[in-house]
Amino acid sequence: MISCKSYQLKDAKPVSNTEKTVENLYFSSKEDYVYKCQMDVYKNHISGILIIKKISETTHRVVMTSDFGNKMIDFEISENDFKLNYVLADLDKKMVINFLKNDFQELLRQKFPVKESFENDDSKIYLSKFDKKQYYLFFDKENGLLNQIIYTQNNKEKIDFTFEAKKTTFAEVINLQHKDFKINIKLFQITENK
Q1: What is the pLDDT of residues 132-156, one digit of tens each?
Q2: 150, 119, 192, 193: which is closest to 24 by C-alpha?
Q3: Over 84-96, what HEC string results?
């Protein structure tokens, strides 16, 4: 277990808050999002193809197959719901399912109410809070694209999402790094998204 210290924004100054809501639009299109996926869960390395599709205003379907096309996991997820359609016996562990559910709920969350705004040399940073969760969203000042979300709970950094993108609705590379568990998920674009 890696200890998590209190999260502090570095080298950022508060600015007046003009935005009421900011959005992560990376999974907002009806197109299929297809990625090469590499997951490290403790000492297990899992790789395959991950497909994410928006199936309604609030719900996404997430399917992961092996590199050979065998289905490993298939679920539908929204902010408040999770429906497991299929899971390979090897992955059918409560802890694994819970991590995937929680990680994808955070990754696919679209709207973030803004409480405070900051900026540093490179980014406009928005602090969003609800329940005991806090999110710091970093938008690149030059291109306006979301390049990082730091998810904290009780002021402890939990997950660091980083995005490499050229447009608002599609990130070519996504890296999801847990701070308190040895879990890391990397997604690399396979299909060119329009």
Answers
A1: 889 999 999 999 999 999 999 888 8
A2: 150
A3: EEEECHHHCCHHH
For the stretch 42-67, pLDDT in tens is 778 889 999 999 999 999 999 999 98
The pTM of the full predicted model, rounded to 2 decimals, is 0.90
CA distances from 44 to 40, 119, 146 (A): 6, 38, 30
Long-range contacts from 130-137, C-beta under 8 angstroms, 24+ separation: 136/7, 136/9, 137/22, 137/24, 137/112
User: Which are the contacts of 161, defined by CB distance < 8 A and separation ≥ 6?
Assistant: 106, 107, 148, 149, 150, 151, 174, 175, 176, 177
Enumerate the β-bridge partners of residue 141.
Answer: none
If pLDDT is split at 50, 70 and 90, which confidence band does 182 have?
confident
Query: Rounded CA gap, 147 and 167, in Å?
Result: 11
Closest-CA residue to 117 (of 107, 128, 109, 132) = 128
